[in-house]
């Protein structure tokens, strides 16, 4: 039977990114994990409209105008909230001598740079970096894998 492996690939890639960033994988039926993926997928679709692109050039004006960019901003805030909850859990169980993942390493660097007023290592930077890893990794990697499967299907003699 034909099927679309896109959703399975997105879930797998997102879970691998979660493993690297958060040090833990999620169950594929986990509501928080599925919500995270839905938000990221919706943002990928919303970014193709003109309003988010205009928002990059005219953020002050666009904040007052309705459009898909408003939903994109709300989705990013929800992903930030998801990330902040995990960061807070990591702070409570942090062992500076044994970082478990990207978040722990970043929290260690925040602590090292505490006296530096010009440091870019902040919790806000950590949440943005995490968002960037998900946005850059999930879509591109899953699409690349999908195309690879399509090529393998079309040319079975390669295998």
Automatic annotation (TrEMBL):
Entry's localization field: Endoplasmic reticulum membrane; Microsome membrane
This enzyme's EC code(s): 1.14.14.1
Predominant subcellular localization, coarse grouping: endoplasmic reticulum
Leader sequence residues: none
A Pfam family it matches: p450
SUPFAM superfamilies documented for this protein: Cytochrome P450 (SSF48264)
Assigned keywords, A-Z: Endoplasmic reticulum, Iron, Membrane, Metal-binding, Microsome, Monooxygenase, Oxidoreductase
Keyword Transcription assigned: no
Family, similarity comment: Belongs to the cytochrome P450 family.
Protein name: unspecific monooxygenase
Upper taxonomic lineage: Eukaryota, Metazoa, Chordata, Craniata, Vertebrata
């Amino acid at each position: 039977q034909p099927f679309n492996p896109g959703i399975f690939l997105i879930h797998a890639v997102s879970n691998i990114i979660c493993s690297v960033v958060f040090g833990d994988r999620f169950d594929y039926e986990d509501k928080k994990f599925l919500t995270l993926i839905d938000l990221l997928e919706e943002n990928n679709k919303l970014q193709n409209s003109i309003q988010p692109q205009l928002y990059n050039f005219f953020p002050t004006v666009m904040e007052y105008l309705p459009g898909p960019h408003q939903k994109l901003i709300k989705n990013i805030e929800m992903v930030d909230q998801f990330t902040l909850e995990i960061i807070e859990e990591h702070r409570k169980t942090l062992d500076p001598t044994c970082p478990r993942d990207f978040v722990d390493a970043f929290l260690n660097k925040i602590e090292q740079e505490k006296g530096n007023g010009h440091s870019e290592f902040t919790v806000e930077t950590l949440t943005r970096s995490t968002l960037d890893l998900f946005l850059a990794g999930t879509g591109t990697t899953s699409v690349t894998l999908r195309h690879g499967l399509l090529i393998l299907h079309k040319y079975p003699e390669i295998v």
